[in-house]
Amino acid sequence: MKYKSCEFLRHAIMFWTNEIDYCCHSGIRFFEFYKIKNSYNGETLDWDLLMRERKTQLQNMKEGNPSIFCKDCQYYEEKDWDDWEPYINFIIISHWTHCNSNCIYCNLDKKTKMKPYNFMPILKDMKEKNILKFDGRLSFGGGEPTLLKEFDKIMDFFYKNNIASVQINSSGIKFSKSIEKYISQENTRLTISPDSSDANTYKTIKRVNKFNDVWKNIKKYAKAQKNNEYGVSTKFILLPFEFGVYSNASKEQIKNWLILSKESMVNSVIMDIESHWYAHYKNKLDKNHPIIELYQYFEQEAKKLDLHIEYYAVGELIKSLLNQ
Ligand code: SF4
Ligand code: SF4
Predict the structure, then answer these.
(1) Can you give the residue ranges of every domain in the chain?
(2) Is the pTM of this model over 0.90?
(3) I need a surface site. Which of 95, 131, 139, 160 has the fewest CB within 10 A?
(4) Is the pLDDT of residue 111 over 70?
């Protein structure tokens, strides 16, 4: 039967620093996530209750009364949905904020220095209660995942259970043996966002002096990816002109960054646009905006270098604007 629903509301969960959410996709539009539970700090969860609440939300959605967060969301889609079953197969682990980078666009409140709650007990509990299925995806948000004390254990837990897909977002500053160990598996994707093609621009955007370390690590990971062709992706978050001194929005930066990715043996590149800027300017964006020209330039130059191109959330939205 055809109706409107969402894969995230059906089977995803996002563990955040002090709450649990269905997804993070309302963030760009509302600066708030669609919550499952407030004030969470690693306590054992009542999964029966959480699944009953999820079922109610899904029923509301099916009847055409989704949460305000979902109404205009790109993931709220009409199609033939299978009968819903109460399990989680997409888990986003994002319960810490500490990071070895200090990006000017970072959303995280790093001043509060919240200690991350222990995550392995949650995973073990989910597995014991048959809530967790491994045919979906594990994604690390954060904070910088390689700084998490439990990072290697979490990775081993999911890989031992044959997780179908893993997405790791890392600053790339600290080299991880665990990522190196698993990056050659075809189900594994690592994304690193250097956002710049020279040390000065990197330092202005990231506010740490780690340009060379990051590209050295990218190269090491790319070497370890072997036949996992798109295992390592570099991401360029375009900071439009309104960022002034911080902007990386030039053809020169984009071109040199793509060349650097290619020289580092990366086969896959990702284009995105800074989300705060997008939230502010989205109604003024049209095909003639200078940022769109850079976006198209990125595509054109990446194709010349035979690089596989992907888009994250805002990048996708721009792509649909161009296709209108
Ligand atoms: S429709 Fe969008 S906001 Fe709603 S649960 Fe799905 S991804 Fe999240
Ligand atoms: S790498 Fe990510 S978590 Fe770290 S400062 Fe940058 S945006 Fe924030």
Answers:
(1) 87-239
(2) yes
(3) 160
(4) no
